[in-house]
Structures are given as structure tokens and as C-alpha cells.
Design a protein that fits this description.
Blueprint lengths: L2 H27 L2 H11 L1 H4 L39 H10 L15 H14 L20 H14 L1 H4 L11 E2 L6 E2 L16 H10 L20 H13 L13 E6 L19 E4 L1 E2 L14 E8 L3 E9 L9 H6 L8 E7 L20 E7 L8 E7 L5 E3 L6 E7 L2 E9 L15 E9 L11 E2 L3 E5 L5 H27 L1
Parallel strand pairs: 3-6, 3-16
Antiparallel strand pairs: 1-2, 4-6, 5-15, 6-7, 7-13, 8-9, 8-14, 9-10, 10-11, 12-13, 14-15, 14-16
Helix pairs in contact: 2-5, 4-5, 6-9, 8-9
């Protein structure tokens, strides 16, 4: 390639980059009047017509919508000396939404131009102009290693555990509120990075550590006036520790709808910590607030539940596991300090149909219906005076629930550092015609619910799942080994006959 052609290519590339830069710059400025029209159609119902976070839906959302008139933004990449975000930060929040909240991603609904126009209008609600002067300084990233993770854990315990807990599950005994109107907020569960609201890449985590989260108790660890200030290297050690503690067993997987009960030969696990549970496959399910029947519930604190199951020739056992930042113990003074007003026991339930459906038709997942009754196994964590308990209820709808006098289920729970584990056991077959009778190899509907007592959850105020399935996997028999060997023998014999025939010819 000669010098002249090379120069032309460089010139053309420079022109393309210049056009792109100008286009992005122009788009970033946006048109606030055009943005106002989009805002009133798409955003005002939550954020309010004047942007004060007081829309019609605001009281039903947790966390509450952002008050744009304050100019306080939780997530930004500008450094500690610049309290306002870059336009690109606001753009990302609109385009990508905020995981774990009611703020959806708009990039599939709105054009880039619409989003940049929204950015301009949202900024105008607080009278913001221009861009911040400097971004967060990332320094030299420290590669993750056992040594770095160890240093990060030590720093985390010293600086972060008072809110996030020793294992990062947000279970420290500390009541937190925001700076706006004193709304209750919960520390982030760092073992679930897929729920981080501004990204979970190492740089995203580094940014949160550096800038803090404005309007919340999460401080900036770049603050020179703070005794907890971290150096660039120390922050990277903390980042490496935080990224190392994610719990993949809690991650929801598309299409993962079946609890696969494992057949055991011999005794079932004795408790939630029995070694027999370690080799059992788990399935995670999302939980949402119960908004079907009164009293409806819009502000849950528990996001998901993980389920394992095992069985033998007599019984079946379930291990239910979910993250709960508080151990709710009514009557306990320390537990009371963490609650907002009256609080109740933690609880969990399993719901099953009385009859396994022959086809795809299932009972209504909200406590069954008149034609399709359900069983509900309901465990409660106990109070300062009363022990844990388990009950069985028969239901044909929310208004027709009957508690049984006799219970054929045993259940025991254990709370440890932000996580509940509850084991429930019942015979596969019972003499009660109102019981669901488990059958090997049959897909059986199953649903779950949890109650976080510290969050004021009781009765119909709780989280639920829809119907999923449980399958008692039949044991691997001799046919599984014999049939493939038989087929292989037949194929080999046929090949030998063909080879002999060819050889004769």
C-alpha cells in the first residue's frame, strides 16, 4: 500500500470518527421540550408530573421512584468532588433500567433520540446544566487472586460488614433509611450480582465503592475526611472479594421449572445441614408480592427461593432455602429495633394439588379453586416464647382455607448469617383422601411462598411463586445399562456380517 492510499484511509477514518463524535455530542444535548412529551407519556405515572417521585404508582413501589427535582442521583461515574452524574449515566439508567426495581429498560421501546431528549428534560427538573469536571479514577486494576481476595475480605469485614454482614448478604443488625423521606432501605445482598442496579462488572463495583450511593447510608470510600477511606489498590482488593462471593445456586435460569427429587437408598437427611443434601440438584424460583387477594402486598424484601428434594421408598423431604436479611423473632428486643412497627414470624409454605392433574390443567395457583383443592404445608419460625411450628391447610381459594387438627409433616428451620434453611418431610403415601399422594415419574405441580416478618408480612401479605413442577426421578435400573449394550452388540454383529459378505465377493 503506498503512502497516498494510506493517507486517504487515515483521513476517511478521522472524518468518520469526527462525525460520530459530533452526532453523539448533539444527541447527548437532547431537546428537553421533546423529552417532556416522552416523560409525560412514559414516566410521570411513577415519577410524578413535576418529577418529584410522587406519581400515582409511587406508594406501591419499593424502592420508591427517584425525585428528579432534588438533583440527587444514586448512580454516577463522576468523582466525589462532582455530585451530579454525566448525561451518559442518566442515559444508561433509562436505557438499561434498574434490576430488582420497577424501573424497566426502555431501550426496546424508545429510540436513542427519545432517550437523549429524556435526559435533557430530567436534568432540567433539577436545573442541572453542563457536565461534571472529572470521572472516577480507576488507577491500575489489581488482578483477582487468592491473596487479593484475602486482603479484600479483611478490608470488607473492617469497612463494610456493619451494613452488608460478614458474608455480604446485607444481614447486619442495622436499620437503614434514605435521605429523602426516611424510607426503609435494605443493604445490597452482594452474593447476587445479577441484582446490582448499576452493573456488576469490576469497574461498576469499583465505582460504587468510590462514589458511594447518594441519598443512602452507603458512603464514598474516596472521602479524604473519612477514617474508612481506601486507596485505589485497597478498593480493587475489595472488588475482587465481592466478585468472589456470588452464589450461583441462587441465580434464576431460563426454563428451569422442575424440582428434580433424587431417589436415595436408605435414610433421608436428618436436618438442613446433612451432608446428603450436597449432591442434590437445586432449582431457584422468583418470588413476587401477592397482589391477587386482599390484603395485597407491593413491597417484598425476599427475591427468590431455592429448592431441593429427596425421597426413598417411604418418605419425601424438601430443603427450602432463601435469603432474608433479618431473623424475625416477635418478643425479642433486638429484632424489634430492626422492624417498622409491629412485626411477625418468618414463614415459608409449599402448595400442592390434592390430585395430580392427568393433563396440563392445574388448580388456580392462588390457594386453589372450588373444583381443584390444594394442600398447603405452612412452617413458622416461632417467637421469643413459642417454638417453630408447622401446619397443614386445605384450601379451595383465598376465602376458603381450613387448618387441620392433625399434621403428618415434620419441619425444622435454621437461620444463619442472612439465610433461612427449612426442611419439610412427609410420607409419600397417606391415609388421608385430602392429601396429595406422591407418585414416582409423575410431573406434579408445586408452588411456594415466604413471609418476612420484619417487613410486616403476615396472612395474605407475603411473596409467592406461580406453579412449577416436582418430579420424583425413578432410579437408574439395569435396563439403562443392558439395552445400550444389546443395541451395540446387534450393530457390531451386523457390521461383521457385512464385512464377511464383502470379503467373499
Amino acid at each position: 500500500m503506498n503512502i497516498k492510499k494510506l493517507f486517504k484511509m487515515h483521513y476517511l477514518l478521522a472524518v468518520i470518527l469526527l462525525i460520530a463524535t459530533v452526532s453523539i455530542s448533539e444527541a447527548a444535548k437532547g431537546d428537553k421540550e421533546a423529552g417532556k412529551k416522552v416523560y409525560e407519556k412514559k414516566c410521570a405515572w411513577c415519577h410524578g408530573w413535576a418529577g418529584a417521585g410522587d406519581g400515582a404508582a409511587a406508594d406501591f413501589l419499593n424502592p420508591r421512584p427517584r425525585d428528579f427535582t432534588s438533583g440527587i442521583y444514586k448512580y454516577k461515574t463522576s468523582n466525589i468532588d462532582n455530585p451530579f452524574p454525566y448525561e451518559e449515566d442518566i442515559y444508561k439508567m433509562i436505557a438499561n433500567g434498574m434490576t430488582g426495581t420497577s424501573m424497566p429498560f426502555w431501550k426496546d421501546v424508545l429510540s436513542d433520540k427519545d432517550i437523549w431528549n429524556l435526559v435533557a428534560y430530567v436534568k432540567s427538573l433539577a436545573g442541572l446544566e453542563g457536565e461534571p469536571a472529572a470521572k472516577v479514577n480507576y488507577g491500575k486494576q489489581v488482578s483477582s487472586s487468592a491473596e487479593s481476595i484475602k486482603k479484600g475480605k479483611e478490608l470488607f469485614i473492617d469497612r463494610c460488614s456493619e451494613c452488608h454482614g460478614d458474608e455480604g448478604k446485607g444481614d447486619a443488625m442495622k436499620k437503614l433509611k434514605d435521605d429523602w423521606v426516611g424510607n426503609r432501605i435494605w443493604p445490597r445482598n452482594l452474593t447476587k450480582p445479577w441484582l446490582f442496579r448499576a452493573g456488576s462488572d469490576p469497574k461498576d463495583i469499583y465505582t460504587r465503592i468510590s462514589t458511594g450511593i447518594s441519598g443512602t447510608p452507603m458512603p464514598s470510600f474516596d472521602d479524604p475526611a473519612s477514617k474508612k477511606k481506601l486507596t485505589e489498590e485497597e478498593k480493587w482488593h475489595v472488588v475482587n472479594y465481592v466478585t468472589s462471593i456470588k452464589n450461583e445456586a441462587r441465580r434464576l435460569k431460563d426454563g428451569d421449572t422442575v424440582v428434580k427429587a433424587k431417589r436415595l437408598t436408605g435414610e433421608l437427611p436428618k436436618d438442613v445441614n446433612d451432608e446428603k443434601w450436597k449432591d442434590v440438584e437445586s432449582t431457584a424460583y422468583p418470588l413476587v408480592g401477592q397482589i391477587i387477594a386482599k390484603e395485597r402486598f407491593f413491597t417484598p424484601s425476599v427475591e427468590d427461593i431455592t429448592v431441593k428434594a429427596v425421597y426413598n421408598d417411604k418418605d419425601i423431604a424438601f430443603l427450602l432455602e432463601w435469603d432474608d436479611r433479618t431473623n424475625s423473632i416477635p418478643g425479642d428486643a433486638k429484632a424489634q429495633e430492626l422492624a417498622d412497627g409491629e412485626f411477625y414470624e418468618d414463614a415459608v409454605s409449599i402448595q400442592l394439588p390434592v390430585t395430580i392433574p392427568e393433563e396440563m390443567e392445574k388448580p388456580y395457583f392462588g390457594m386453589g379453586d372450588g373444583s381443584h383443592p390444594v394442600n398447603v404445608w405452612h412452617w413458622k419460625s416461632g417467637t421469643a416464647k413459642d417454638p417453630q411450628s408447622v401446619n397443614v391447610m386445605d384450601a379451595t381459594g383465598f376465602k376458603n382455607i381450613k387448618k387441620r387438627d392433625k399434621v403428618n409433616i415434620t419441619a425444622k428451620g435454621s437461620y444463619n448469617k442472612g439465610t433461612w434453611k427449612v426442611m419439610m418431610t412427609r410420607p409419600l403415601k397417606t391415609d388421608n383422601k385430602d392429601d396429595m399422594q406422591f407418585e414416582e415419574g409423575r410431573f406434579t405441580p408445586i408452588a411456594f411462598a415466604t413471609w418476612d416478618g420484619t417487613n410486616g408480612e403476615k396472612g395474605s401479605k407475603h411473596t409467592i411463586t406461580t406453579w412449577y413442577w416436582i418430579l420424583l426421578k425413578p432410579p437408574t435400573g439395569s435396563k439403562v445399562v443392558f439395552i445400550p449394550l444389546l443395541v451395540a452388540g446387534i450393530v457390531l454383529g451386523a457390521e461383521l456380517l457385512i464385512a464377511r459378505s464383502v470379503k467373499k465377493k
